[in-house]
Design a protein that fits this description.
Elements: E1 8-10, E2 17-21, H1 26-38, E3 42-46, H2 52-63, E4 67-71, E5 74-78, E6 92-93, H3 98-109, E7 114-118, H4 129-137, E8 141-145, E9 149-155, E10 164-166, H5 172-183, E11 187-193, H6 200-207, E12 212-217, E13 220-227, E14 235-237, H7 242-254, E15 259-266, H8 273-280, E16 284-293, E17 296-304, H9 325-334, E18 338-340, H10 354-364, E19 368-372, E20 375-379, E21 389-392, H11 398-409, E22 415-417, H12 430-438
Parallel strand pairs: 2-15, 3-14, 6-7, 10-11, 21-22
Antiparallel strand pairs: 1-22, 3-5, 4-5, 7-9, 8-9, 11-13, 12-13, 15-17, 16-17, 18-20, 19-20
Helix pairs in contact: 1-2, 1-6, 2-3, 3-4, 3-5, 4-5, 7-9, 7-11, 9-10, 9-11
This protein binds shikimate-3-phosphate.
């Protein structure tokens, strides 16, 4: 990231039309690099997201002995084998990436190595106790900063102890940290999920040849991984990221006369909550050419402008759209009537406190919004543009920046975003694709 903030005003310049292709899924890209780095032999990956977060994972895997390089359009990863991670010589810089940090802590936890993790100002505020607790039970040792945050030192256990762990928060990152630690742990490590979260780790671990038993027991999902596993190198095509497509789904829905096709969007049911909620609001979203890419359901989405109505969002759907709430709030601000969201405490510990950040940002742009303990209540304009304004504060949070860029497209005066640099963590091509869709 460059040293100085890069502000920008996003303004209404007309409909979004044509076709665009969103970059590779961030969650799947992290996992492809990590599992490739643990297989023996060469894994090849196409469609990898080349955002800063995934590049932080790639750098960390290199620092622990894997070869990770790009040849043409393909990423080639030569792994060290499960159990073969080397002690990194310098601190692992995780940048802005919570996923890199928590999943890699899982990997280190069952290797007899010591590693230091550092991150930017946003990541250094985020809670790590949620992974320290289960990984500590498996035998790893931690010295975090006060409050259980980064910078943090840890030493993994060799051998680690298998555990059965019921997730106290609905978090795919915590689930994945424990499963990845379980890869190099003798015996069976289990995670019990009272509420299902994204299942990319389970799908990909199986794809690489690990033995996982997944069962529904007493209304809970139980995942058991058999250690110590051996992973076989794979050829992986990463599907497009529904969390990146989300900005264009909302933009085309709220900007009059838009008619846009977003190609290659991953529609794994554990990620597709926003599409459902937008449809409940009246959005026009058609799935074209449904198919499978990299073991995940994918389709091209045709989205046309449509009048939206406020809804009550069922808190049960929150995990399947956890990263999409900032941009959903923008859709709500343009809808007819009231949108009520609840049960979203987790949004307060993302790259920023997304409830507070979006309440402040939308209010600055002229929306009517009320922040509650665990959600936002938004009274929409009924399709009239927002006044606009700013500069709004992104708090080093890519999704706040992109959501408010979308709000700017449906505003009279435009919305000024104080810093667009964080967008590169997950979606470096966002501004270029937006300009193309509006040309
Ligand atoms: C992710 C899980 C989610 C999500 C994050 C990516 C993952 O976090 O917000 O962007 O790749 O596992 P939590 O597991 O903390 O909810």
């Amino acid at each position: 990231m460059t040293a100085h903030p890069t502000p920008r005003r996003f303004s209404a310049t007309g409909p979004l039309t044509g076709r665009l292709r969103v970059p590779g899924d961030k969650s799947i890209s992290h996992r492809a690099v990590m599992l490739g780095a643990l297989a023996v032999g060469e894994t090849r990956v196409t469609g990898l997201l080349e955002g800063e977060d995934v590049l932080a994972t790639a750098a960390a895997m290199r620092a622990m002995g894997a070869q990770v390089e790009k040849v043409g359009d393909e990423w080639r990863i030569r792994g060290v084998g499960v159990g073969g991670l080397l002690q990194p010589e310098t601190a692992l810089d995780m940048g802005n990436s919570g996923t890199s940090t928590r999943l890699l802590m899982g990997l280190v936890a069952s290797h007899g190595i010591t590693a230091a993790f550092t991150g930017d100002a946003s990541l250094s505020k985020r809670p790590m106790g949620r992974v320290i607790d289960p990984l500590g039970l498996m035998g790893a040792n931690f010295t975090p900063s006060p409050g259980g945050t980064l910078p943090l030192m840890m030493t993994g256990a060799s051998p680690a102890v298998p555990i059965a762990y019921r997730l106290p928060v609905a978090s795919a990152q915590v689930k994945s940290a424990v499963l990845l630690a379980g890869l190099n742990t003798p015996g069976i490590t289990s995670v019990i999920e009272p509420v299902p979260t994204r299942d990319h780790s389970e799908r990909m671990l199986r794809g690489f040849g690990a033995t996982l038993d997944i069962a529904q027991e007493g209304g809970e999902r139980v995942i058991r991984i058999h250690g110590e596993a051996e992973l076989q190198p794979q050829q992986i095509e990463v599907p497009g990221d529904p969390s990146s497509a989300a900005f264009f789904l909302v933009a085309a829905s709220i900007v009059p006369d838009s008619d846009l096709v977003i190609e290659n969007v991953g529609l794994n049911p554990t990620r597709a909550g926003l599409v459902e909620v937008l449809r409940q609001m009246g959005a026009s979203i058609d799935e074209l050419d449904p198919r499978e890419v990299g073991g995940e359901p994918v389709a091209d989405l045709r989205v046309r402008h449509a009048p939206l109505s406020g809804v009550e969002v069922d808190p049960e759907t929150a995990p399947s759209m956890i990263d999409e709430f900032p941009v959903l709030f923008v859709a709500a601000a343009l809808a007819q009537g009231r949108t009520v969201t609840r049960g979203l405490e987790e949004l307060r510990v993302k790259e920023s406190d997304r409830l507070a950040a979006m309440a402040a940002a939308l209010a600055a742009a002229g929306a009517r919004v009320e922040e509650t303990e665990d959600g936002l209540v938004v009274d929409g304009t009924g399709g009239d543009p927002l006044y606009g304004g700013g500069p709004i504060t992104t708090h080093l949070d890519h999704r706040i920046a992109m959501s408010m860029a979308v709000a700017g497209l449906a505003s009279k005066d435009g919305v000024e975003v104080d810093d667009t640099r964080p967008i590169a963590t997950s979606f470096p091509a966002f501004e270029v694709l937006l300009a193309e869709a509006m040309a």
